[in-house]
Amino acid sequence: MGNHGGNNVMTSEDAGRGRTRRRGAAVPLALGGVFVASLATLAACSSDTDTERCIDTRTNTVIDDKYCADTSTATSYAHWYTGGSGFKIGSKVSGGEEGEHGVARGGLGGHGGEGGGEGGHAGG
Amino acid sequence: MRRIPIDARPGWRRTVEAQGLVFATTPTADGRELPYWYESAYYALTTDEVDVLEDTAAQLHQLCLRAVEHVIAEEGFARFGITDERVVAAVRRSWDARPPSLYGRFDLAYDGRGGPAKLLEYNADTPTGLLEAAICQWYWLQDTHPAADQWNSLHERLVEAWRAAAKAFAPGPVHVTHTSVDTSGEEEMTCAYLAETAQQAGLEVVTLPIEQVGWQRRDARFVDLALRPIRTAFKLYPWEWIVRDPFGAQILDQLTAARSGNGAAAATQWIEPIWKMLLSNKALLAVLWELFPDHPNLLPAYLDGPRDLTRHVAKPLLGREGDAIRITGAGADSIVQPGTGGAEGWVHQQYTPLPDYDGNRPVLGAWVVAGEPAGLGIRESDGPVTDYHARFVPHLRRPFCCQLNSATYTP
């Protein structure tokens, strides 16, 4: 199907348009970096963003997220924590990285259980 | 334009999945799997047709900008269902400042016989279908018709658009956010692709789910998971949802704060900018018809009812994926699509039939990047509405019309 004989002959006008308005057939596309990393992450069905949880820094134990989202000083012991081990409420954490108090998350997204894109594939 | 059957490449699914199209099929409610990427046919357009469609997209974009200008000048926000004064102020400020904008996609009904393409809607805020249009169909062309061309400069134009936009960005990385609610992988991969194009433009990029964006009250700024400030953010998440979300108030505060006032230094610049919520709202169709009546690429459209239209389509102003659309007076094409919508109002647009290629009904997605026409993606359906079960079909461009075995065309 790839051979269309004379139909592939481009006029000079076509060639001129191709330079500025269309991709010439010889232009390579290379995807890498963040794209490949995302593909790999999706393939593995995991995400490091899932590991964030709220901890009580006095005891290094996991507590409810609401304490970290609370921006008052009354809960200043509550900090976000990423990576490492210890995920369930009440369990000790270690090996991860401590964030800070007063950062609220979850204030964007999750609208009605839908994705935000329009007009591609939407059956998922 | 012709639709030409062709054998799919052996292992096509693995091929497109490796290119990032992890959503190559569409699951149905009854457990079946329909193809989303469909390469057992392709559309062939002539150079003349592509030239006209390119000009159409460029012209429509300019008309849309004039419509936005009109709406803002005439205080026409209520017609778009926008009554929140903070949103009005943010849109106005954004339009005045004209921050960087990346892309959009016109959905066009095109009869394939040389008649003018008709605007169905402009997805200018959160368009998807990008990865398949920019990458997958290009590689398909290389594999199947390496000597042919395609209306497709999406990738190069996106990279260049990021490069140009970066001049207006604050220091620091660009955060590219997707919603993790979508489990098909479409939104994440679309964002990953856009992140890739930003990276190829020399920008530092961080990707994260929009649900993980943090608000740091102490410094009145948005932060990522490493507590880095988010100064420039791409979002594949519509503005009409953002402004109603819990962080909507903070975002609107930032967008309307005095440029040199409190919080201005920490403000996040969002792509697409908020003024584009006027373009992605279907009330735009009525404003366009009001301003440019009888324009060959526009269909009569009204907000107060169908008026004298005997065959018309009622679309929710903020409808998505064909939800709740009602087609009236169109014979076998008359339909009421399931779904909710319409709380903000409806637009009533003259019905124009999609062409029918042996039961396949294509809609042309004409891409615009940085205000310039950039490529084409074609989705086809079995019915008159391009909905959740639509499939993406690749295309190629021929220098002139050729003798081909093509599907029978039914006007």
From TrEMBL, chain B:
SUPFAM superfamilies: Glutathione synthetase ATP-binding domain-like, PreATP-grasp domain. It comes from Actinospica durhamensis. InterPro entries: GSPS_pre-ATP-grasp-like_dom (IPR005494), PreATP-grasp_dom_sf (IPR016185). Pfam families: GSP_synth. This is Glutathionylspermidine synthase family protein. Residues 12-396 form the Glutathionylspermidine synthase pre-ATP-grasp-like domain. Coiled coil: none annotated. Keywords: ATP-binding, Ligase, Magnesium, Metal-binding, Nucleotide-binding. GO terms for molecular function: ATP binding; ligase activity; metal ion binding.
